[in-house]
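User: Can you predict the 3D structure for this chain?
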Amino acid sequence: MTKVYTNLLLERRGHTALVTLDNPPAHTWTLASLRALKELVADLNADADVYALVITGGGAKFFSAGADLKVFADGNKDTAFAMAAAFGEAFEALSAFRGVSIAAINGYAMGGGLECALACDIRIAEEHAQMALPEASVGLLPCAGGTQHLPWLVGEGWAKRMILCGERVDADKALAIGLVEEVVPTGKAAATALALAAKVARQSPSSVTACKTLIQGARSHPLVDSLPDERTLFLGLFDTQDQKEGVQAFLEKRPAEWKNG
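Assistant: Here is the predicted structure, written as structure tokens:
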């Protein structure tokens, strides 16, 4: 029996998991869907045959409009705390996914929708996409990593323009400032992301996990600590089946058959 995740559709495409946000019309996040995303990522982490994750929105207009503001209309702080915690736990789990995660931004990515994309390793946007973190315009702030991930990608100045001034960016501007890595025609984001994810299958999954740990660690760890960590993780790969398989496959001039271990 196929496992069901609230407002999330999961498909397998080779070694890639394709996750489609499915809460029309704007694919807003709910407490249940955020908890489902956290559970889904944990399940993918436990599946050694999954190397990459692509996340996109259903339809042609919205990636995700973030949280439904009606949830916060009564000013209940208990509700706000539960939602903030769920957003944080879900997107931190997504950021920590052991493989490569790619956001296929197929339309509007607003607030928590953009924060979902920011939690991914790579972002591909369709040419009509619009992105913003408008929380301050309704008396709130991006609480699902937006204030932390965005400056890392686009620099402090553009992060302040988007968060403090409420500036919305289109796909071309997002590409220019480093918010996304590629812009593609309308309707092509998911296919482009899946093609990129397929390239991940050529890489050792064990190496990808180690490399991702080091790259993301650069955000918070000083260089003097991270350089020795590189060597430690490098040596640790010699305890994996993938290292032995990778070298043998290269020497035998054949594709590697990874074990993810």
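The first strand starts at residue 8 and ends at 13. The mean pLDDT is 94.
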